[in-house]
Predict the structure.
Amino acid sequence: MPRDYPENLQELERLFPDEASCRNYLLRLRWPAGFVCPECGEKAAWKTNRDLQTCKACGFQASLTAGTIFHGTRKPLALWFRAMWHITNQKYGANAIGLQRILGFGSYHTAWEWLHKLRRAMVRPDRDRLKCYVEVDETFLGAKHRGGKRGRGAPGKIMVAVAVEIEIVDNKPKMGRIRLQRIKDASSQQLLAFVQANVEEGSTIRTDGWEGYNVVASHGFTHDVSRASANVGDDLLPRCHLVVSLLKRWFNGTYQGAVMPGHVDYYLDEFTFRFNRRKSKSRGLLFYRLVQQALIAGPVYGKEIEGGIYSPSRKKATSKRMTIVRELASETTTKTIFSQEV
Ligand SMILES: [Zn+2]
């Protein structure tokens, strides 16, 4: 793929000085093979105004920003581009105060809302599941007090399921991609749902032997229990534990642990987005992915953000229109390589 993204801030400023350049970029990313009518598949269109393409065959008017994260925005796209650049360039996560400062917003709330909207674009709806050999564990985020029953969860705490793919390089296990998800408790029902949603059938699931995981063996997975061969004090799931400690440090550092439970999923998505691209040499490529995914993540409304409702727009993006848009977008999406997402 020829490079189609800025490598540094100067390039960003040079490539996207105005609305027209931003629109052309979105147009290219949304319809990489050229415009295709979402209603009838026709390829010829008139450009009716700066946001609308009108299908020559059926007259359908396709808006460049409708159905995307930028839906209905009154602010310049160039500002959104700067926001996306800022977010993808923060190694330890962006916060609303930083974004407000960079964009010169008078309102903290607007920066906070933008950040939440962009977080929703951090996970591809059709991302691949982990495969082969996967460590799975759970952890608590939130309240500082210790304790809580594993099977039932704990009041004031958020339980998060963690899956880490292990790849073998030169006969040595290496950490691959991760998946994180908030779960109600560590019951077999919750854990199985997490594993099935995030790991390909036929893979081996390595756990510490908590009874909640036993169910995976009867659902197409090989269950490898590390407890049987370990002594007390051994680090049974080292990769999960590393991810958990990084997650906690990030969660408590960047956000001081002050996150509404309903928003946690999005912070987990942001952490996953960054973690799985930790070896990416180019911040510009992260920017490119975020723009690409912002175009398929669907519109997000203020109300959904306030209430912390998780992905209502994203999960129902199955209409014919969105499917076509997604297919087109995935055509140019570089295949996920094993160790990390690009
Ligand atoms: Zn048409």
Observations:
- The chain is about 35% helix and 15% strand.
- The first strand starts at residue 45 and ends at 47.
